[in-house]
Amino acid sequence: MPNGPTGQAPGAGVLLAILRDGQARTRGELAQLTGLSRSTVSQRLDGLIDRRWVVAGEDSISSGGRPATVFAFNGGARVVLAADLGATHARLAVIDLGMTVLAERAAELPVDRGPERTLTWVVDAFQELLAGVGRDLASVCGVGVGLPGPVEHASGRPANPPIMPGWDGFPVPQWLGDRLGAPVLVDNDVNIMALGEHWAARPQVDHLIFVKMGTGIGCGIISGRRLHRGAQGTAGDIGHVRVPDSEAPCRCGNAGCLEAVAGGASMAAALRAAGIEARGGRDVVALMRAGDLRATRLVRQAGREVGVVMASIVNFFNPSVVVIGGDLAEAGEQVLAGVRETIYSRSLPLATQHLGIRVSELGDRAGVLGAAVMVVEHVLSPGALDQIVTGAQ
After folding, report:
1. Taking the C-alpha atoms of 354, 355, 357 and 363 in order, what is their torsion angle to the nearest 10 degrees?
2. Does the chain have fewer CB atoms within 10 Å around its N or its C terminus?
């Protein structure tokens, strides 16, 4: 492996990046892969072993002399705290660096209660989950949070979120970091769901769009196997794309937005107007499954409306997979049929020739897994690891 752009030899972080594939290697193999001397490899490994990022063992295969020592990534060295906060519910998890879920919890948690009440519950729940698996805050290397609204990713602050009163500009990373003692990364909930779906279910896919159909509607974009956030972090906000021939008022202040036509909240409101009790998208899906024809028609039409917007995006971005997630994805083929109908009829044949349109494989766990992926990739990046090992932080 050649020297980096600064001309410096690869550091400890590069060794860890190699070992994260799960294969144990000897000093000689690491030296060959990096171009470093065995003595330098040993020095780099010592720093990783001291902090338990890497563990040593004896190779079971000997060349005739003393068995060579092999080194492996220690996925249990630290844990990540992950929180996926939706409009009305939350899912939290404690996940180790090998992406094993150690503990998780789901709860009804209206985000419109405001940031401090919501995040206080999150902190308390995290501490209970940690205690339940015999860990404490000292073992936490990072926290990942998804929020149901626009987030300026660089600062982690919500930016004018229409369904989150009191959250605009709130310093979520600082507030949580002060109480949990670890770095905090915050992103839009759809972005972390896209990360989770791509990492766990479709890592071989280069170009993927994850569409969340819940109380609101949004999409996360994986381009070249990397999350695309845009200049300010608002890439993929399709929920406020104007739908033709609609004047439905939207919570953002405009009219005719996709969210106002096809979101779970709008469908539940339409059912209530017809005298049918429904609080949100989950109730709409439950009614559909119970055979309610009004709910079934609403779900199918919501799929069509989302498909109209997605057809333009498929033409523009040319993904290989479109994944539908969120509460309304539980409607399965009813919502997929509407999405497919309009995408395939309105998109270019070449763009849809090999296009897959399917429901999320991870369901409501996509968000917490994606939040953990976001943190792990940040904490274990070669540059960040080099700083930790050399004592720069």
Report:
1. 100
2. C
